Amino acid sequence: MQTIRSVLHFVAMVLTIITHSIAILAVGWLLPPRLTCRIAHNWAVVNRYLLRWICGLDYRVEGAEHFDGPNAIVLSKHQSAWETIFLWAIAPPFQAWVLKRELTWIPIFGWTLKAMRQIAIDRSAGKQALREIAAKGQAMLEQGRWVIIFPEGTRVAPGERKKYGAGGGMLAQKSGYPVIPIAHNAGVFWRRRGIIRHSGTIRVIVGPPLDTADLSAAEITRSAEAWIEARMLELPATLEEARAGE
Predict the structure, then answer these.
(1) What is the C-alpha separation between 89 and 12, in angstroms, rounded?
(2) Which pLDDT value is given to residue 83?
(3) Distance from C-alpha of 79 to C-alpha of 77, rounded to nearest angstrom
(4) What's the pLDDT score for residue 58?
């Protein structure tokens, strides 16, 4: 039954991607970036209800008050496709994401990312990619956007960890903007390489802004990593643990 529900949600999600993308492509080039981001926010909210209604999967956010201040750099754990949707609903809508440029090549979806003026980088470019994150990210921050980065660079299964990239720390060090870390266990319910969306409640922990003053890029990255990984140890890492705690 959960497989059927998951397939239904996948179909519904694709339809919402198409409808919202068409809206952005039709008028997004003419609208201020804040308004196109509002459309993306609406898309995430719609999918929140669809996911809860079809699959019984919801989420609970702890520390949402940390989004009430000025815009910042968000460094989030990356386990699933879930957070690539729902950070649009959880964080303030005026966002810019650091993402691999290959995503912009996807018909409709990729064109929409371009219309929304996201930060697409060539991950194979090494230091040049880091310079792009720092330069373009700072420009976005100065516009008032929240810059979203997955420092691990790829989805990592629950219970595992990957070295954090330097892009977020470098951006924070050069721009002077604070870092807000996020830990969650979405990968327990929606695995990185699977279509099944298990029912339950994803836990999301939003940390207080990390003061980046007088810290090197490496120190900022280590500070964010330490906070996120410490919180990950507090979250259920298996479906059985998660359901036992509900």
Answers:
(1) 18
(2) 96
(3) 7
(4) 96
Q: What are 6's two structure tokens? A: 């998951």
Task: Give the mean pLDDT of 110-128.
Answer: 83
Sort residue 126 into left (φ over 0), alpha (ψ -120 to 50) or beta: left
CA 162 to each of CA 5, 157, 183: distance values in angstroms, whole numbers, following the listed order: 31, 10, 14
Q: Side-chain half-sphere of 5: how many Cα atoms within 13 Å?
A: 15
Confidence of residue 241 (pLDDT cuts 50, 70, 90): confident
Domains of the chain and CATH, by start: 2-244 (3.40.1130)
> Which SS3 state, helix, strand or coil, does residue 147 take?
strand
Residue 121 — pLDDT band, cuts 50, 70, 90?
Answer: confident
Q: SS3 of 148, please?
A: strand
Phi, psi at residue 216, to the nearest 5°?
-75, 165
Q: Are strands 73-76 and 57-62 parallel, antiparallel or unpaired?
A: unpaired
pTM of the model: 0.93
Token pair 């196109």 is found at 36
